[in-house]
Each structure stands twice: as structure tokens, then as C-alpha cells.
UniProtKB/TrEMBL annotation:
<feature type="transmembrane region" description="Helical">
    <location>
        <begin position="32"/>
        <end position="58"/>
    </location>
</feature>
<keyword id="KW-0564">Palmitate</keyword>
<dbReference type="Pfam" id="PF01529">
    <property type="entry name" value="DHHC"/>
</dbReference>
<protein>
    <recommendedName>
        <fullName>Palmitoyltransferase</fullName>
        <ecNumber>2.3.1.225</ecNumber>
    </recommendedName>
</protein>
<keyword id="KW-0012">Acyltransferase</keyword>
<dbReference type="GO" id="GO:0005794">
    <property type="term" value="C:Golgi apparatus"/>
</dbReference>
<dbReference type="GO" id="GO:0006612">
    <property type="term" value="P:protein targeting to membrane"/>
</dbReference>
<feature type="transmembrane region" description="Helical">
    <location>
        <begin position="64"/>
        <end position="81"/>
    </location>
</feature>
<comment type="similarity">
    <text>Belongs to the DHHC palmitoyltransferase family. ERF2/ZDHHC9 subfamily.</text>
</comment>
<dbReference type="InterPro" id="IPR001594">
    <property type="entry name" value="Palmitoyltrfase_DHHC"/>
</dbReference>
<keyword id="KW-0472">Membrane</keyword>
<dbReference type="GO" id="GO:0005783">
    <property type="term" value="C:endoplasmic reticulum"/>
</dbReference>
<feature type="domain" description="Palmitoyltransferase DHHC">
    <location>
        <begin position="139"/>
        <end position="182"/>
    </location>
</feature>
<keyword id="KW-1133">Transmembrane helix</keyword>
<keyword id="KW-0808">Transferase</keyword>
<keyword id="KW-0449">Lipoprotein</keyword>
<keyword id="KW-0812">Transmembrane</keyword>
């Protein structure tokens, strides 16, 4: 007889809406049609160029042009799939679970029912304040993931997960873009110069009272160095063990985000 916590397919056990393949080697979204459109838009001009232009260029100009073209094409496709298939930095659920309300038992008299102190106060968590580089930030509680979102973390509605440094959800790469799979584009170079995510840039542009951005290190070179020199952190989730658990709300953290290890992080 199977135990109640018998292993299930990893895709069934994971609480978010991502598609998990090869025991967590591939963590991607479910908008495969959009990724197909992206591949079509890349490959249509690539095929036309290869068939009608490359032979002429190879013979009459230089084979080097064709080699550079092939290199750029492979780099483009590799980067696309690397971004599409990498865990963007999903935060494990239930790091700050809501405590169940205390059971008060049967009222001993009718006066209990009119006494406000008889009823339990809500245990719904409020916001938390943290100080980062001298700027006070409010940490919101995510009731879906049951955790205080670390600074710069957002909940993705498409993937249904909290993602660290979530820039945005990109349907064209079929995944969130976060701390572990940040791609480089011209627009993102602009954001990197300010050390901002897309979410932070949009919030700052609509906010009349602009608060200072505590993650800006002061100049483009420092912000760029932090982006390209920062090692990719390991995934927060123990993907290879997740299928052994039966509850979709089970948290399987390999380790916790910095915010949960330190009371007052000052340099994230
Ligand atoms: Zn969340
Ligand atoms: Zn997403």
C-alpha cells in the first residue's frame, strides 16, 4: 500500500504555475506559443540570410563575416534558452506562515459573546520596515506564498511565485526575468546604469514623491560591475527533492533569502 506522502511528479508537487522538467533542471513558464513566435521571428531572417546572402558574402567578401554571423546567432539562441529555462530566483513558500487563530472553546456564558476581548484578534501579518542604505523600505506580506517579500522581490501573477529581484515576466522568453536569469538588452543597460528593475523604474516614474533609490551605488561603472561581477546565486528551492513531498504548499528551501537570515540587511 502506498504511503500518503508517496512521491508524485515534480510538476504536480510544485505550488507555482511553472513547468518543471528534468527534476528541476529546466524551470520555465507555460506560454510556449509565445516562445514559438520568438523562435519564428529569429529564424525567418536567419534562414533567408543564410540561403541568399551568406554564399555571396563567403566567396566575395570574407568567410569571417559568415563566422561572426553564426557566432551571433548561436549566442542569441543560447541566451534565449538559458533565460527561458533557468529558475529566475523563485522564493520557497511558507517562510513566514500565518499562525492559526487560537481556539477559544465554547463560550461559558452569554456575556462572553458580547465581550470583544473574547474574539481572537486577526493574525494577518502587517507590513515590516527595514532600513537599507539609510532608506526605510516596507516589506509587504504575500498571502499566496505566505512570506514577507524580501526587498526587490515581486509576486508574478503568471507564474504564481515570489521572485527575487523580479524585473518583469516576459512571455517572449516564457519565464520571469529575475536575479538568476537577467538578460542584457539596451533598455536593461539603461536600468543597470541606475541599478533598477523594470518594476522599480515604473513605480518611480508614476510616483510623484520620488524616494531615493537605495540600491543605486552612485555611478554607472559600479552598478554595471555589481551586475556583471555578481555570481549567480544557487536556486533557493531544492528541486530534486520537491517530488517527494505531497503538499503543494510544502516549502523546500535549500537556503533562505538574505532578508530571512539577517534582521536588518544594509547592502543587498
Ligand atoms: Zn508570492
Ligand atoms: Zn513569471
Amino acid at each position: 500500500m502506498k504511503p500518503s506522502s508517496s512521491p508524485r511528479h515534480i510538476d504536480e508537487s510544485f505550488a507555482g504555475k511553472n513547468k518543471i522538467l528534468l527534476r528541476g533542471t529546466i524551470v520555465t513558464g507555460r506560454d510556449f506559443w509565445a516562445l514559438g513566435v520568438t523562435l519564428l521571428l529569429i529564424h525567418t531572417p536567419v534562414i533567408l540570410f543564410s540561403v541568399f546572402v551568406c554564399p555571396f558574402v563567403y566567396i566575395n567578401i570574407s568567410p569571417a563575416v559568415v563566422f561572426v554571423f553564426v557566432y551571433l546567432y548561436l549566442l542569441c539562441v543560447f541566451s534565449l534558452f538559458k533565460t527561458s529555462w533557468t529558475d529566475p530566483g523563485i522564493i520557497p513558500r511558507n517562510l513566514d506562515p500565518i499562525q492559526p487563530m487560537a481556539t477559544l472553546g465554547e463560550p461559558s456564558s452569554s456575556s462572553d459573546l458580547v465581550d470583544p476581548s473574547y474574539y481572537p484578534v486577526s493574525t494577518y501579518p502587517g507590513m515590516k520596515d527595514v532600513l537599507i542604505n539609510g532608506v526605510s523600505l516596507k516589506l509587504k506580506y504575500c498571502d499566496t506564498c505566505q512570506l514577507y517579500r524580501p526587498p526587490r522581490c515581486s509576486h508574478c501573477r503568471q507564474c504564481d511565485n515570489c521572485v527575487e529581484n523580479e524585473d518583469h515576466h516576459c512571455i517572449w522568453v516564457n519565464n520571469c526575468v529575475g536575479r538568476r536569469n537577467y538578460p542584457l538588452t539596451v533598455y536593461h543597460l539603461y536600468l543597470i546604469s541606475k541599478n533598477m528593475t523594470t518594476h522599480e523604474q515604473i513605480r518611480s516614474s508614476v510616483n510623484i514623491r520620488r524616494a531615493p533609490h537605495p540600491f543605486n551605488l552612485g555611478n554607472f561603472a559600479k552598478n554595471l560591475m555589481q551586475f556583471i561581477a555578481r555570481p549567480k546565486p544557487p536556486s533557493y528551492i531544492e528541486w530534486r527533492k520537491i517530488h517527494e513531498h505531497s503538499s503543494r504548499m510544502t516549502s523546500l528551501p535549500r537556503f533562505k533569502p538574505a532578508f530571512h537570515q539577517e534582521q536588518e540587511p544594509t547592502n543587498l
